[in-house]
Prior knowledge:
- The protein is an alpha/beta fold and 420 residues long.
- Helices cover 31% and strands 24% of the residues.
- The chain has 14 helices and 24 strands.
- Strand 12 (206-207) and strand 13 form a beta hairpin.
- The chain is elongated.
- It starts with a strand and ends with a strand.
- The structure holds uridine-diphosphate-N-acetylglucosamine.
Amino acid sequence: MDYLKIQNVASLEGTINISGAKNASLPLIAMSILAKNSVHIKNLPHVVDIRTLLKLLSNLGATCEFFQDRVVVDTSNLSKTKATYDIVKTMRASILVLGPILSRFGHCEVSLPGGCAIGQRPIDLHLKALEQMGAKIDIKAGYIEATTPNGLHGCDIIFDKVTVTGTANIVMAAALAKGVTTITNAAREPEVVQLCEVLHASGVTIKGIGTAILEIHGTDGELLTIEEFCVIPDRIEAGTYLCAGAITRSELTLKNVEPKHLGAVLSKLEEMGSRFTITDDTITIHPSKNIKPVKIVTQEYPAFPTDMQAQFMALATQAEGVSIIEERLFENRFMHVSELQRMGADITLNGNTATVNGKSDLYGTDVMATDLRASSALVLAALVADKETNIHRIYHLDRGYDSLEKKLHLVGAKIQRLKE
Ligand code: UD1
């Protein structure tokens, strides 16, 4: 198993190239199931989750060819409709194939994803919406068995909670359904917006893109012709490197970013003292020497993202004063707290609220990555911790960060990937 050895560094300097968004790529790859042509997708990140989904599609009979950051997915030979446990257990987002397979083939089996490190993460809202559209769903022996005896039809769906992959799944199911589907309380995340935009450009009329009410006009089973497109930049990767600049008090420039997607993150970094120079696709952070404490509540887009909560907690350990971080989306997303405490952070947990008493002198030690974003928080803390930190179980990082140690090395971090 690989681990990262990170040494304290005085400062970083230079430019980091931001990769395509993992969370946009996953539904866009699943969307290729709705196409009659080979789908060309550009700007895919090199991360394990993408390879996992492509493997799942290959197992079902699709052809997936990878060329650097581009993939060509041909689902014309897709013959199997069962997403088995061995793959789904490694990546919950495998549930994204349910909507498109069901709407194209009329039947689909997907292993139940189960809980994960950050909480229970049910998929009841996906299933309820598909039932409303005419699907018959049984849960048997750990599998969701879905069929559509009379095809999928449009209807009015109201999500009780905003769900990102739930919205993506139902948008894809609705794309080939008969009639008009309305989703109220839809997710407005940029990754959902891009999925809707590509479908709209491929002949599925979608109204309300980027709002909480989506209206999808299905094609009644007719497969789509999807032209080549480019995945949007990863706003969470970008946010993580902005935090790297802030925590090391270093001027860093990010290129190939979409600043509009980072509103809440930039605003919190500004509250903490950083300033920015922003162009259409670059952001340069000018950090302050004294980091100010902050209050953060995680919520759905466009509010502050839960996927940036752990990184800001690492940054808050270096703020002069008390920061309060409230996690509203996932019940158990504080696994990084005990590891940061082992590095010397002063953090108290009370339910879903963490109080971070800064500033703490962090010291390097052995720590364990517990989930994707928790891992990047440990990397940030290690950059400023005394001496040397070894971060174990970094397979979590590899799921979602493209070439993290190479990108940080290029801007001067002392970071090495080693074998246990
Ligand atoms: C997606 C992102 C993940 C991010 C999360 C929240 C992908 C691949 N993953 O995860 O990185 O942290 O959005 O922004 O895009 N819920 C239910 N029932 C459901 C579905 C969700 O109760 O059927 C609850 C969840 O437990 C959670 C909340 O709704 O409390 C939001 O979850 P959701 O938006 O669905 O997260 P994911 O799509 O799994």
